[in-house]
Design a protein that fits this description.
27% of the residues lie in helices and 27% in strands. It is α+β, with helices and mostly antiparallel strands and 170 residues long. The protein has one domain: Muramoyl-pentapeptide Carboxypeptidase, domain 2. The strands form two sheets. Strands 4, 5, 6, 7 and 8 form a five-stranded antiparallel sheet that branches. Helix 2 (47-69) packs antiparallel against helix 4. The protein is globular, with a radius of gyration of 15 Å. The mean pLDDT is 92.
């Protein structure tokens, strides 16, 4: 929590998500409104996840936005974080531990929106930016799934800190 305070992350300590040992327990849950930049909606994550995401924003996402657009990021657009559920394959989802976020895109400082569902497969700077974001995410997260991974991720980039390592470098 002290690290979140030092970084200026906007958060509140979240209520316990489940009892210790439960399938949906989040270690040190926090409700995040903004890391380096605001999120489109608050989300519950583990403290460790938001620290990794904040670093990813500062070191990768914002510099990439400046490189591709000459603009900073105004808002991170996500589809959700904590959710007590399993994956389609039946294994425990990292969302169930607050260790994952589904990143749908970004709003730039000039108001333009860059969304995975619209730009991932289109030619141009938005596609190149999102592909670069996904590639750089491999340096910060253990598993990065994007629209090229499977049909479940057609509209977002899944980021998680779970025990599995899966990140395709293109």
């Amino acid at each position: 929590m002290a690290a979140l305070d030092r970084l200026g992350v906007q958060y509140q300590v979240a209520a316990a998500t489940a009892s210790l040992g439960s399938a949906c327990h989040v270690e040190t849950p926090v409700r995040i409104a903004a890391a380096t930049v605001p999120w489109n909606q608050p989300a519950v994550t583990s403290c460790g996840f938001v620290l990794a995401f904040d670093t990813f924003e500062r070191e990768a996402v914002r510099p990439l936005a400046l490189r591709y657009y000459g603009e900073d990021i105004r808002t991170v657009i996500h589809l959700g974080a904590y959710s007590c559920r399993t994956t389609r394959g039946g294994r425990e989802s990292e969302h169930a531990h607050g260790e994952a976020l589904d990143l749908a895109g970004f709003e730039l400082a000039d108001g333009r929106r860059v969304l995975v569902k619209d730009a991932w497969r289109q030619r141009g700077p938005s596609r190149d930016f999102l592909h670069a974001v996904a590639q750089h995410a491999c340096d910060y997260f253990n598993e990065v799934l994007d629209p090229d991974s499977d049909s479940d991720h057609y509209d977002h980039i899944h980021l998680d800190l779970g025990p599995y390592r899966l990140c395709v470098r293109r």
